[in-house]
């Protein structure tokens, strides 16, 4: 029987358990999964002004029991392990409702947990009843296919993105809001659990290489595919709901890869302080694009190329905005004041972009 080919850069409509079986074994480099949370909501939630909170109450998040949820989770996690390469890895995200159950199942079926990452939401929904702590984070588990398996981790890219500091496992990223949030014609959000592109940027940049295949078995509105395309990775999405499929296809079709590219919001700085802002945040917010030219001291003859990890390349030299500026000057330098980008035919200092982010 011939080996089935991979449906690269496509959204497949249908049940993930059925469609995962159609993919070749050991064919995918990374799985990112945002499965149903099984929230077990008991009643509707209202704000103090009596407006109803649009919580996650979709049919796809309903399970009859913990056992039913565990059975479903074990099946899709096992199916994903079959399609992952020996060097592949899986990321799965969840809340306190489901992430501990998923972690136990991962270990039971042979995955090896590499890290748990805490996504700290800088703008979480309050606990309106005041009966619990504000739930301000979600947890991501990163796992290889087995103990001792090789996997991809772009340590230097993540360090570069964070201004040459090793990136930690607590990620401060806002919820998906504003222009990034996909809404219908009536202004209602299309998907109740749309993740910020910032989150997927870090996941995909950290644990894949350009050209790798990223699979999302719960594709939703297509965030994984959009970021994968920007970062020059191949992608496959599986989604059961026809409406989400169409939204995702239209969204991804509009993405223009600029080498590996991206978007990414940042937290508001504390009052009375200028919060440290790594240069990589300009990339993550889409204010600058990988492959874009930055000009040293407004000199168009000295055009450095911006890499996806936030470092610059010019005439065989490579480094951070500060290191490359120091190399060109032959003295210590503040790169924020010395590199310029082009907009509408004019050159502007990148420090303007930093200030815009600080007070957004």
Number of domains: 2
CATH names the topology of the largest domain as: Rossmann fold
Strand order of the main beta sheet, please?
1-8-7-2-3-5-4-6
Order of helices and strands: EHEHEHEEHEHEHEHHEEEEHEEH
Instruction: Find the count of extended strands (DSSP E, 2+ residues).
Output: 14
CATH class of the largest domain: Alpha Beta
Q: Structural class, from helix and strand content?
A: alpha/beta
Question: Average pLDDT value?
Answer: 86
Count of discrete alpha- or pi-helical segments spanning 4 or more residues: 10
Structure description:
By secondary structure, the protein is α/β, with parallel strands linked by helices. The protein has 2 domains: 10-253, Rossmann fold (3-Layer(aba) Sandwich), CATH 3.40.50.150; 290-358, no CATH class. 26% of the residues lie in helices and 22% in strands. It is built from 10 helices and 14 strands. It has helices at residues 16-20, 66-83, 99-108, 155-161, 197-207, 223-230, 242-253, 280-284, 321-329, 350-358; strands spanning 10-13, 28-33, 84-94, 112-121, 137-144, 170-173, 213-216, 234-239, 293-296, 299-306, 312-314, 317-319, 339-343, 346-349. Strands 1-8-7-2-3-5-4-6 form an 8-stranded mixed β-sheet, sandwiched between helices. It has a 6-stranded antiparallel β-sheet with strand order 12-11-10-9-13-14. Helix 2 crosses helix 3 (99-108), helix 5 packs across helix 6 and helix 6 (223-230) packs parallel to helix 7. The radius of gyration is 21 Å and the shape is globular. The model is unreliable at 45-56 and 260-273 (pLDDT under 50).
């Amino acid at each position: 029987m011939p080996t089935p080919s991979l449906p690269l850069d496509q959204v497949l409509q249908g049940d993930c358990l059925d469609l995962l079986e159609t993919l070749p074994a050991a064919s995918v480099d990374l799985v990112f999964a945002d499965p149903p949370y099984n929230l077990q909501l008991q009643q509707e939630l209202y704000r103090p002004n009596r407006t109803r909170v649009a919580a996650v109450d979709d049919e796809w998040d309903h399970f009859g029991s913990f056992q039913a949820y565990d059975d479903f989770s074990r099946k899709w996690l096992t199916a994903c392990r079959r399609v992952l390469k020996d060097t592949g890895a899986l990321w799965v995200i969840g809340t306190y409702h489901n992430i501990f159950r998923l972690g136990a199942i991962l270990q039971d079926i042979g995955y090896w947990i590499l890290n748990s990452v805490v996504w700290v939401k800088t703008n979480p929904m309050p606990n309106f009843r005041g009966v619990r702590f504000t739930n301000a984070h979600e947890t991501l588990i990163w796992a290889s296919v087995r103990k001792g398996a090789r996997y991809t981790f772009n340590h230097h890219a993540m360090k570069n993105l964070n201004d040459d500091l090793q990136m930690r496992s607590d990620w401060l990223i806002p919820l998906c809001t504003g222009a990034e949030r996909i809404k219908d014609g009536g202004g209602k959000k299309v998907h109740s659990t749309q993740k910020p592109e910032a989150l997927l940027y870090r996941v995909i940049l950290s644990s894949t290489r350009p050209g790798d295949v990223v699979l999302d078995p719960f594709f939703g509105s297509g965030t994984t595919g959009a970021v994968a395309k920007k970062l020059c990775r191949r992608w496959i999405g599986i989604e059961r709901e026809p409406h989400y499929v169409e939204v995702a296809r239209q969204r991804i079709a509009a993405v223009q890869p600029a080498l590996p590219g991206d978007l990414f919001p940042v937290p508001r700085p504390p009052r009375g302080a200028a919060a440290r802002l790594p240069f990589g945040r300009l990339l993550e917010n889409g204010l600058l694009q990988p492959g874009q030219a930055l000009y040293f001291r407004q000199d168009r003859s000295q055009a450095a190329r911006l890499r996806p990890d936030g470092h610059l390349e010019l005439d065989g030299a490579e480094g951070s905005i500060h290191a490359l500026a120091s190399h060109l000057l032959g003295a210590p330098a503040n790169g924020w004041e010395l590199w310029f980008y082009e907009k509408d035919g004019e050159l502007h200092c990148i420090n303007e972009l930093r200030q815009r982010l600080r007070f957004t």
